Amino acid sequence: MPDIATITINPAVDIFFNVDRVEPTRKLRCSAPKRDPGGGGINVARAAHRLGGSVVAIYPIGGVIGKLLQRLVEREGIDSIVTPSHVETRENFTAYEESTGDQYRFVLPGSTLHRAEWEACLDKLVTLPEKPKFVVASGSVPPGVQDDFFGQVARAAERLGAKTVVDTSGPALGEALKEGICLVKPNQNELSEFVGAPLSTDSERISACRKLIDDKRTEMVALTLGEDGSLLVTKDGAWRAEAMKIDVVSAVGAGDSFLGGLVAGLAKSLPLDQAFRLAVAAGTAAVMSPGTELCREQDVKRLLTDVKITAIATAAA
C-alpha cells in the first residue's frame, strides 16, 4: 500500500547537458543529454522513494514525450497512474556552462489542458484502491487548469482520510491554503509574496508561519531559505536548520528533494525534528548531484549526522 501519493498536473522531461560557454548566435557544441522525469510532484516522489517511502505518482501524459516520461518514472521503480492528454508533455532544459560553473535553466510552459483531462487526475486520486497517508500536490499549474486545482486535491485527500501537502506559488497556493492543509512548503520569496512582507528575520518568518497556522490554513510550514537554511514551524514549536557547507554542483530539485525527505520521514512516523533532519539532508544532497538527478540515498545517509537542528521556539508566539 503506498503511504504517499503525489499529483503533478504540469509534468516534464528534464534535459541536462554541458556546454563550454553560452554565447549568442554561434552553434554551441553540447555534451550528450541526460534525461530525467520532472515536475514538482514527480520529483518529490523520486526523492521519497529513494529514501524508503512507498509512493504512487499521478500525472497526465501526452505524445511521445509523455510516453518517455512514464518510462523514466517507472525506471526509477515508482508506480505511475497516468491519464491521457491531447497535448505533448513539455520539456525543460538545463545547461551547465563549464567555463564558469554557471547553470542556465530554461523552463517551458505546459500546454493548455482540457477540463476533462485535469479532472481525470482528480478522479484517479479519489479512486485509489489503497488509501495513502499523505497526498502531495506540487509544482506549477498549466494553462486551462483552475487556480483552485490544488484546493480540489486537498478536498479529495480529505475524503480519502489522507493529509495534504502542498508546494506551489501564486494564486494556486492561496486557493490550497483556503482548505486547511497539513503542510505547506514555500520558499522565502513565495511566503514573502503571499503575506506581502519581506520577512528578513527568523522572528518575522516564524510569525508569518504561525499566522497561517492560527488561521487554520495549515498545520505546519516548512520554509526553505536557500543559503540561509530552513525552518519548520508548528503551532507549538519551531526548528532551525543552518545551511550545510558543501560544494554546490546543481541547485535543480533541492526544494523537491527537501520535501520528499520530509514527507518520507513523516510517513514513517518519525518525530518532527527527525523528519526535518532527513529533509535537510535530502535537500543538501540534491545540490551535490549534477543536473536533475536529485538526492542520492548514500549522500543523504552520510549527511544526516552532520545536520544541525536547533529548537528556537517551544510555544506559540
Automatic annotation (TrEMBL):
Residue ranges of coiled coil: none
Keywords carried by this UniProt record: ATP-binding, Kinase, Nucleotide-binding, Transferase
InterPro entries, alphabetized: PfkB_dom (IPR011611), Ribokinase-like (IPR029056), Tagatose/fructose_Pkinase (IPR017583)
A single cellular component GO annotation: cytosol
Gene3D superfamilies: 3.40.1190.20
Molecular function in Gene Ontology: 6-phosphofructokinase activity; ATP binding
Pfam families in the cross-refs: PfkB
Carbohydrate kinase PfkB domain residues: 14-297
Domain of life: Bacteria
Family as reported in the entry's similarity comment: Belongs to the carbohydrate kinase PfkB family.
Protein name: Phosphofructokinase
High-level lineage: Bacteria, Pseudomonadati, Pseudomonadota, Alphaproteobacteria, Hyphomicrobiales
